[in-house]
Amino acid sequence: MVEFTPVEKIPGVVQELRKTFDEGITKDLAFRKQQLEKMLLFLDENSKQIEQALFKDLHKPSIESVTAEIAPIVDECKYMIKNLERLAKPSHPKKRFALNASDKTYIRKEPKGVALIIGAWNYPVHLLLLPVVGAIAAGNCAVIKPSEVAEHTNELMEKALPKYLDPCAYAVVSAGVVETTALLEQRFDHIFYTGNGAVGRIVMTAAAKHLTPVTLELGGKSPAIVTDTADIELTAHRLLWGKLYNTGQTCVAPDYVLVAQEKQEALIAAFRKTVQEFFGKNAQESDSYGRIINQRQFDRLQRILDGIASDKIVVGGQTDRENLFVAPTIVSPVQADDPHLMQDEIFGPILPIIAVKDLKEAVDIVNSKDKPLAMYIFAGKSSDYNYIMDKTNSGGTLVNDTLMHLQEMSLPFGGIGPSGMGSYHGDRSFDTFTHERSTMIKSTSLEAVNQARYPPYSDSKKQLMSVLVFGLPSAAGAKIKAITTVFGAAWDIFFSSSKQNNQDSKL
Ligand code: NAD
Fold first, then answer.
1. DSSP character for 403?
2. Does the active-site annotation cover 37?
3. Which residue of 15, 109, 356, 460 could cross-link 361, Cys pair, CB 3.0 to 4.6 Å?
4. Which fold has domain 223-413?
């Protein structure tokens, strides 16, 4: 059982981190790199314990623990260490305003301050530590809140991580609803939350009280559209792999399939064959198949299955509550407004298949729902996937595969509308935890030219400002007049200011 951090200790934890941040310790690039190295050491020295905790929590196959939980964080740490100087150095956008021509302008990349990072249970290492890497790299302090639902992983994080990361700058807080509510009452400089949209709204409401910026990594119903030009064999492998990875408990798992009606039968036959290839006759006996996180989630999935007529379950349907097992299950035919399968995110190994007569019908179904986190399109023709992308919105889109776009950390990852706001991964993680401070160092010379913007205003100053700011008028006569006026005005201003300077120097 995870022991939660006592509510009364929470304000002190945040204050301590703020003190560290104000001292500037985490801004130092060498410190950031050292902490990223410590994170690598934590992952290296605890990889077995992490795998064990994930197995206890989710029956996660070892290969999934390594490739989806540990490896992406190792990769991200190494990327940040290698790219930190580039990411942290100021940028110098090309100046546009003529009056600032001789001044220095740049954008300082500054850490936001103290961040709160709230993880979710389905990838309890990856979803917690990947944003932490971004927060460290950008120079922030952070409260790290694992999901208490994945209790073994939560316990490991709480006990082991503080032995590696500097506890003055990074604090692991174990929290249920009561403690997280207390945490959210504190003032943070950024809140990064991963989980469902209902809690996302609670987080955003709490953040609004302090006007704290948020990143919300949420979920929803991500569609897979299988067009009549798709390679059915390949589609069955790649689509079911993404659906059944982590037993369907993946935010970007394909939630439902929209298939061209003439391909429906072939796709179901290919799915049937693929399930056997992947997990044998009985997935419960396969080492490659996980379990549902807890009985609450199991019961939710069981209720979905109970609402489906048995003749529609074309593959699977078996469950075992004691063992938290739900078989890979395919349901067909399904209507787009099915009350059990097509309202909420399924978040488990149940896959409804809806036949559509053309791409337009598929697009209409997608657009009748919230904008999804991911959209998968299986198509042999670019005109098919371009049509679908042009007519829809989604956080990300992957053509002819599932999940792989998430592993490509050069692409920002995030949702749109109810599937989330903000994004991260690689450079975007760094930016998420960074404030871009616009900076201008004004030259103290050329005060004569600057006289043009000071009162008392005159027509000649107006001409000068118009020419400098907006460019010369186009008509040739007007141009000459403006140039003469500008030179005249500049001369007057220069002459009067140097006269003034001379008088000043005599004083
Ligand atoms: P969860 O139950 O672990 O909850 C997420 C976090 O919210 C936990 O840390 C939990 O302690 C906290 N929490 C729960 N109730 C709270 C409350 N009342 N006040 C404050 N904090 C509270 O995970 P979940 O929400 O069941 O996760 C599944 C959902 O998350 C799915 O919708 C899935 O699609 C989505 N998800 C999205 C991503 C992504 O990257 N976009 C990743 C994983 C999961």
1. S
2. no
3. 356
4. Aldehyde Dehydrogenase; Chain A, domain 2 (3.40.309)
